[in-house]
Predict the structure.
Amino acid sequence: MAGLVVLLKRHWFLIGIAAAVALATCTAEFGRWIDHFEVGIGGTTMQFGASKLAIVGLFFIAGVAISLHHLDRELRNPRLHLFIQGFVYLLTPALVYLTSFWIPDGPMKMGVYLLAALPTTISSCVAFTAAARGNALAAILNSVGSNLLGIVLSPLLVGLMIGRGGGVPPGAVGKLMLEMTLLVFVPFVLGQAAAAHFDEWRERMSGVQSVLSQLLVLLLSYCAFSKSIATLAEQLGVMWQVFAYLAVVQVVLLFLAALLTRGAGLPVPDRAAAIFCSTQKTMAFGLPIAYSLHIEVLPLVFYYLFQMLTASLFLQTWNRRQARRSV
């Protein structure tokens, strides 16, 4: 019994994902219902619902929990920041765009393009970097910076990549930038402001940020699966091929990040931050873009889960190697 409790504690998030899939299969209509409300903002009608509330919550929590007061010295390390942002917004989109020619045009291929254009995660890459005894401050700065840059860069990159396969509706990129500003930038700034006025909030939130963020990701997963379940059967043939392709892409990106950081001569703590920040993609940021452009979210959901697995395995290998070198 004790072993079962330990297993549940260690893998509760993966178990939760499986439960979200099962629940979405049984209650897909309810999942779609709670995720579809329309709100008028400045003459623009935006769809709102459970998933977007979860995204707002994720970035508000990040704003409260993450302190940016001691990052000034990291701004003096431009080589590391340029490496991470270049990897996220140049190398990864180029690699995916050039190697995904075999995927038939359609929602699944657009989902792969969307994945390539997304920023890094805002919490897990920091957690993995800290666990690897890496430069956690640099990971925080680049995860936050990547997501803020993504407000502009991700919609633009998506528009460029999927343009040849049907185009992006006129005005969609500008609307997406406005939407991402409201969903990402505003909640994060409000979280920072709240923590500045209530010091105890940051201390309390930093201890539970990971659990709260993962619970909100489970809600995102439920909504995403609920919307995709109807088209799952018709895309089953290409879906598994795409998943296998994305698994290979993730492993290749990890290998490239490790190789290039070594070749760039980065210090070991900076290498850890660069590897984990460069190779991860955020699901929270991608879902509103996917819903706005009617892009399939299954590639994003799969990649998000697979990157957690590969990052965990890489972390174990990394720590063993560092331990041997320190002896």
Notes: The mean pLDDT is 84. Residues 90 and 232 are 31 Å apart (CA to CA). The first helix runs from residue 2 to 10.
